[in-house]
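Lab meeting notes turned into a lecture example. A postdoc, R.K., suggested we walk through two folding results consecutively so the class can see how the record format repeats. The first protein's sequence and structure tokens come next.
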Amino acid sequence: MVKQEFQSFIISSGLLKRLVKVDIYRPTLFDESSSMNVLFINDGQDLVKMGFSKMIKNQLGAERTLIAIGIHAGIERRQEYGVAGIPDYLDRGNKAFVYSRFILDELIPYIKSVFPTAKIDKKYLAGFSLGGLMAFDMALEYPHEFSAVGVFSGSFWWRSKSLENGYVEEVDRIMHAKIRNKKREAHLRFFLQTGQLDETADRNNNGIIDSIDDTMGIIGELKRIGYEPNEQITYLELPDGKHEVKTWGRVMPMYLQWLDQLK
């Protein structure tokens, strides 16, 4: 088994106007003249808590090399994560477009400079909670850049109106509405995870907690525009899963294995 290293770097982002800490997880014996797949993970500060270095080490195979980039959230996390160009009813997520451009225009070129002779094959995304919503939005918005996304307890409740201000589920869930204006991408794959203990809220009183209800709604919208269940959409629901790093740490090895099986 190849030993895994993780190195931290600080990027001065002109777009976000702040310093961004990123952790790069890579094999010590990585052949920099070979190709690599790259996984970008929002809320990268949580990866250390879940022992991510050991997880990715156990997933390494002889056929492909996975480099993982943990992007630490800043103090404006609720502004930088969201749905690009569509803030929620409290104007949260108003920097989501800028954050997406940071990954595309600053972070990816930076990674290429760290591995100047390596070829990037496929790029993947992942995120937890609000960071999962952001990762999903980027995969949907830039399918020419990314091949797959993993969303752990995603904040798919993100809405344009408050519950007290005439909220209508069919039209006011921002991501659900955005999917309806997209078309199916044959190569794109989705890994969506929820936990039955994610929360207790049940907005519409249908007996299903919002975390699961909203995720099932996302799956329904994806299927409506042609995405194939099982082939393109993988859903994992944990009976004892909670909205916490410990649960997401249990799921992460499954996501890494799922990525390794993609063609």
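The second example is placed directly after the first for contrast:
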Amino acid sequence: MDSSAPVPAPSWRIVLALISLFSGVFLAVLVGGAIVAAGGWDLNVSSSPGADLGRAVGQFGRGEALDHNRLPLVFSVLANLPLWAAFIGVPFLARSRGLDWRRDLGWTMRAIDVPVGLAIGVASQLALVPLLYWPILPHVDSDELERPARELIAGATDPSGVFALILFTVIAAPICEEVLYRGLLFRGIYDMEAQRRGALAIAVIASSALFAASHLQALQFPGLMLIGVVAALAMHRTGRLGTAIWVHMGFNATTVAILLPELY
């Protein structure tokens, strides 16, 4: 970091977060589209046994090769590299403009963050999310709630796929997303609104809502919003981004641990 650069204003950090988000999405769409077009894969293939059986029967009847045509997880990781690169790269380059990761993003961690963060993430997935959805479960298809996670995990059909799944969901996504949504966005909004009553609530809700909305999953929005709120509050309580990262890792790892054994 250039020590002579002025301390960036909170509003500038918010703008930087939005630049990171939209540039990353744009690049990921371009790269992902090119990968899918080159391989001829489907992006959204149902992972239910009935759908897979029906697809296999149909392909057999038409004399086609039995192939579910799902985008391999290894290529999903490659398609998301531009997204992660923007989430991390834009704030990294902004260090030359005075952005201090430790001061402005809370980029630090203590050993206690590992067990505490993981415990909070696991508890959020196993207890808070079911409690949140309990009032609406009679009115929605429970399989639809798990569909995005199942479709992602269904691509882990070999050791390389399992490795890519863990890298994708448990390591890379939590780190990159927490830098953007909690480090840049939440901290930026909170610092900008610090003198206003309810600053914490504004920052938590706004950053968590954008985090949830960016996943483009309407039915899963409440659960994503919930983990965003939990991660933001955990970070605010400790002042360390490491806490939020481990919360996010614990949350995602629980989903993988529950659904992955169903494939084997």
